[in-house]
From TrEMBL:
GTP-binding is among the record's keywords: no
Organism the protein comes from: Thermosulfuriphilus ammonigenes
GO molecular function terms noted in the UniProt entry: oxidoreductase activity
The name this protein goes by in its record: Uncharacterized protein
Keywords from the named record: Signal
Organism superkingdom: Bacteria
InterPro entries listed in its UniProt record: Multihaem_cyt_sf, Multiheme_Cytochr_ET, Paired_CXXCH_1
Amino acid sequence: MKPTSIKWLAGLVFFFPLIFGCVQSPQPQAPRAKKTCLECHPDYKTLVTKEGPVIHQPVASGQCNGCHRPHGLVGGAFLKSDPPQLCLRCHQKTLEELRRQTVHPPAQKGGCFLCHLPHSAPQKGLLKKPVDSQCLECHQDVLKGVNKHQALEEGCLRCHQPHGSDQPDLLQEKSSSLCLSCHTDKTILKKAHFNFDISQACIQCHDPHSSGQKSLLRPSIHQPVTKGECNSCHIGRGEHPLGLKGDPQEGCLSCHPKETGASHHLPYDRGKCLTCHGPHGSAWSPLLSKAPGALCTQCHSTQKVQKPGRQIRSEHKPVKDGDCLACHRGHISQQKSLIAEEPGKLCLSCHEGIKKGPIAHRPTAKGQCLTCHLPHDSSQPHLLGKEEKKLCFSCHQKTAKEENKFSLHTPFASGRCSDCHDPHYAQTKYLLPESPNQMCFSCHQRLEKEFKGEKVHAPFARKQCLTCHDAHAAEYAFQIKRPLDTICFDCHSQVGQMVRREAVVHPPAEKGNCQQCHRPHGGEKPWYLREDLKDLCLSCHQDVSNYWRQGVAHPPAEEEEGCLTCHQSHAGSRKALLKAPAGKICLSCHKIDQALVSAHNDITPSPKSCTTCHNPHGAPDERMLWPVEHPPFEKGNCLPCHGGGR
């Protein structure tokens, strides 16, 4: 190391402590006071106070972050997890209850907040309402009967668990044990049950909540039970008086003889009566062990009706209500699938309103409703078996081919056949609810308004739309049935003959484009022209009016319908569609007299040559001469060419 470097290093070692010692060390800052969530969100404090005196423990202790995330890129009080996982992190007892055999559906679906409030509530357990009122929000039907079970006064939780239970219907314990915990007097019980010791299956015959019958009996009671004829089925004596006399199935058939029919319900056919029925009583007639919908779908799984992943857009009301017996018999039927009646009659027993007229759709007339509809549910509206268009076209194949045409009626193109046709019954042919003419105007109201008070084309006035248009599709625009001119000439035959016969044809008429000049439905102008005649002609023949503003117009040409003074409108034998030879037309107004001869330098003009010198529509001055003249003619010197002859 060089000596100079050694001196720098020694100096740095000497002065560094001095420099470091002179810099003032920073003073420790006092810790900032933390704010609670409610200090920044005072509105929640008001809400908590307003909702009730019972406060959720985390809220009471200010531990908002027990449930909510404190940070996030997006503003909002986001929960740490969704209910019920969020709630069950603390409520372990409820977690245990949810692991039992029967779970309250809202709790099973995580609907904790259907019954509870998250921050504070007016009721214990953070319930929104008192327990019984909360239960009756969903279970109002338990109070339908006029006779109420006295136990209801003790509240729902006297018999039920709120979240989960190992017993059916969320019961605290076995139903019979619950009943006998109050109904302890065996003497009274025995007397009420025809001297039988009944200690189980109480709710088979009795409704535990309310009933329209005395003793809270179910609406459907086995007849022997109501009469106390227990001996009909049970031994009734000895050590086991409630023992059955024999095979229960045979016991049923002894009173309910087996019926015969074209189709049999399999359990009925096998004598398995108790598969569907209870032996004593039931809430559902006739002694069904469950509500019909739930009972039937035990075997007839909805998967047979509804394929997985299939979206249901329509559902038959009896299916929706679980009222399977509205259409099916429980035991036997003379129809397939245990249908109660012939399909057509069965459907009409509810859908009588479809008879809107004397004309019937063939499947409807034959009662073949299932040709178009499914009986239970469908991915299409109105229980249709297929998309409406595909369904209609499966039979109406000739109509289906019209889809390939150039111009399609909007409902037809959209497959909305029922926009125009009634699929069942109608007043008129083709299953139309009204005459085709009226039908069109149910959608095309604008046309009626547009021509209100104006002169209208005769077919339009008579609403004979199908005279010109096709109802479904056509090869021509606006569903015109044929080329437009052929349709027009059907009625306007004289015009048609002229157009086909004459040598000179007005170009729009020659092209069959009648609507270039005429409005097909009507209008305020003569002949339903699109504009006043003069304006209409000038829209194409603009040169005719070249001198009308700065010059002189030929008076007939300037008149409103003056064009037709000299010209044909559709066809003619002469050039420019003139009605007669040009000179003859001129002489119809301009007689050859002395004044005319004098105006022509004493030369008698030939009628054949008027338009040689004169513009028949207008010119720069009143002589009506063409703007470019032969120089001798311009000077009035005819002799160089005509030699003085007249």
